[in-house]
Design brief:
Elements: E1 6-7, E2 12-17, E3 20-25, H1 27-33, E4 36-40, E5 47-48, E6 53-59, E7 63-67, E8 72-77, H2 79-83, H3 87-90, E9 99-103, H4 113-120
Antiparallel strand pairs: 1-2, 2-3, 3-9, 4-6, 5-8, 6-7, 8-9
GO biological process, one term: glycine decarboxylation via glycine cleavage system
Family: Belongs to the GcvH family.
Protein name: Glycine cleavage system H protein
Length: 122
């Protein structure tokens, strides 16, 4: 977990840089999923709506859904994760990021690192 990020109840993290939010899943979510073997992400240029499913993360144990924590336009996806899904497990807060979204600045209901740690019992 990283102190400068925001977190959702769906176990996504959000890093904000101006009007672009970089989104990934937390190490907690990656551990719960197990070994990630497939990642499906939305297309660049697509418009996403907050709190809706925008992708899928499959592991050897289960299939998880990627929820959009913000509304906006997908401006970049992490092709490296599509090609090498285990990056989600190996480096969820770094090379395992998933999508970048240009958004209106509304993060909705998010938690800071301390609140997320309490939420997950960490």
């Amino acid at each position: 977990m990283t102190a400068d990020l925001k977190y959702t109840e769906e176990h996504e993290w959000i890093a904000v840089d101006g009007d672009v939010a970089t989104i990934g899943i937390t190490d907690y979510a990656a551990e719960q999923l197990g070994d990630v073997v497939f990642v499906e992400l939305p297309a660049v240029g697509s418009t996403i709506t907050a709190a809706t499913v925008v992708g899928e993360i499959e592991s050897t144990k289960s299939v998880g859904e990627l929820y959009a924590p913000v509304a906006g336009e997908v401006v970049e996806i992490n092709d490296a994760v599509v090609d090498q899904p285990d990056l989600v497990n190996a480096d969820p807060f770094g090379q395992g990021w998933l999508i970048k979204v240009r958004f209106d600045g509304d993060l909705g209901a998010v938690m800071d690192a301390e609140a997320y740690a309490a939420f997950t019992g960490a």
